[in-house]
Amino acid sequence: MNSSAAYLRLCDALMENSPALLATDQLLRDTLTLSSGNPGKLIRARLVLAAADAHGLEEGPAERLACAVEYFHIASLLLDDLPCMDDAWTRRGRPCAHKLYGESSAILGALAFINRAYALTGFVFASHPAEIRLQATACLDACLGPAGLVGGQAADLSFAQSDRSAREVAMIAARKTGSLFWLAVYFPALLGAPSQKELHALKALCVYWGLAYQAADDLQDALLNAFESGKTAGRDRALTRPNLAHAIGVPATQARIARLMEQSRRVVERLGATSQRWGYLGGFHREFVEPMVCAVAA
Amino acid sequence: MNSSAAYLRLCDALMENSPALLATDQLLRDTLTLSSGNPGKLIRARLVLAAADAHGLEEGPAERLACAVEYFHIASLLLDDLPCMDDAWTRRGRPCAHKLYGESSAILGALAFINRAYALTGFVFASHPAEIRLQATACLDACLGPAGLVGGQAADLSFAQSDRSAREVAMIAARKTGSLFWLAVYFPALLGAPSQKELHALKALCVYWGLAYQAADDLQDALLNAFESGKTAGRDRALTRPNLAHAIGVPATQARIARLMEQSRRVVERLGATSQRWGYLGGFHREFVEPMVCAVAA
């Protein structure tokens, strides 16, 4: 399937599986419709879809799993944008949900997406062996809890009180952005019952891609304006948030991104050599990760 | 097991399974520790524990399932108390988490509890047949999403713009308070693979108990002061929130509670007659629900 067909398929699936269909409250429904109907690049959802297709899931369950990971991501954006978090005004070129429909609707909308994501995951994994289900549960627990996304966001908000070192920045990036790559790469790969060696390589890939992606995002925040980035830019410095370009400078950030890209390319090649079923990771690296990261890092 | 032993066992389990153990951020850890270390009456967790014991779960998994439902409940309290929701200052006789540690910590704390609750549920149900797991997933989806807790809270906040009828009040109570009774009664009962007739009776019991409990809570808010109730009282009228005692008056509310208690007593008896394993529901009705509801409704 070509890339724009997959994108359109995902846009439809995000509306079809949305919790908006069950919402009777107007503000909640509008929040959910806005959030699932205004997708970004869908990097993570496309990765999950490619993985699910490669590992033999049928069309419906594959889309539902991709929606689940995207809903976790949407929920994190709704909450990150709140006044008590990053206090953002725009997201994907439009006013943030909390600006349009109120903070309570943004919070409840995030909960509705998280809940739906867990339900979709439960339904998709229901017929898989207990061992795979336990691994998937442990993966969600690690990625979304205090050791993952929630902990990363908390450390992000406390960053001004930390030593503001490059190490602290990397730790936060690993938990915040890295966790969502674990959900997009490691989590659906469990469907393919990978060997220990393959699991090891997948973990490394999540780390490299996640760090490169966050570093590119930091560069973008440091260099571009809101019009170009589609979201409230320059916030990291204004709010004393972790930003690699502020911590080590622009040239060193660009060099680090190049190194992470090289490391991930090598992992992708190594995985491709073990089995054809990991071919989608190589395609993804060339088609999306490299162009996206390099566009801002060049 | 007597009631105070079960209570102490649950207090320990709530700390042992808490996401606080994984939190490195001070504010997040303090929020989680405060919330799981200052339990209320643990009505729902005790119901789950009794059900899990009755349906043959071992000690550890039984406690973990009880913690899961209590964590869902704690998360809903953390979020309900926020300034953009009910704007409460005290909870269980202490300052609310957002007053002590900030709104972002309260929100992230709620997410950590929800995530942990789903993980515990996934681990506990992992070895059960697919049919029971699918029912459990569907139950969580219905109870926690826009048709349940999230939708109830949204309707609660929009109540001032509704017709403010007793019907609207009952709909909101069913979604907000009712959903948590479904999690405490219907959800763990799935472990016992109930018949269609038993499922029907369990659903009715959730409705009756949920409505009676919410009506008693409404009466408490309308009649008592903050010192007596342990939380910010009189908020319903101040914020134009749904309150049965405001909608139909105090005597009619008391009469409705008495009727709901009679209806639930009959369902509990009917269930007890079908099988001994539902005996815990009768014990619970006599020991907790009646005294608690009647104390305020008398």
UniProtKB/TrEMBL annotation, chains A, B:
Key word Magnesium present: yes
Any GO BP: isoprenoid biosynthetic process
Pfam family, one: polyprenyl_synt
GO molecular function: metal ion binding; prenyltransferase activity
Cofactor requirements of the protein: Mg(2+)
Keywords assigned by UniProt, alphabetized: Isoprene biosynthesis, Magnesium, Metal-binding, Transferase
PROSITE patterns, alphabetized: POLYPRENYL_SYNTHASE_1 (PS00723)
PANTHER family: FARNESYL DIPHOSPHATE SYNTHASE
Family indicated by similarity: Belongs to the FPP/GGPP synthase family.
Name of the protein in question: Polyprenyl synthetase family protein
Lineage: Bacteria, Pseudomonadati, Verrucomicrobiota, Opitutia, Opitutales
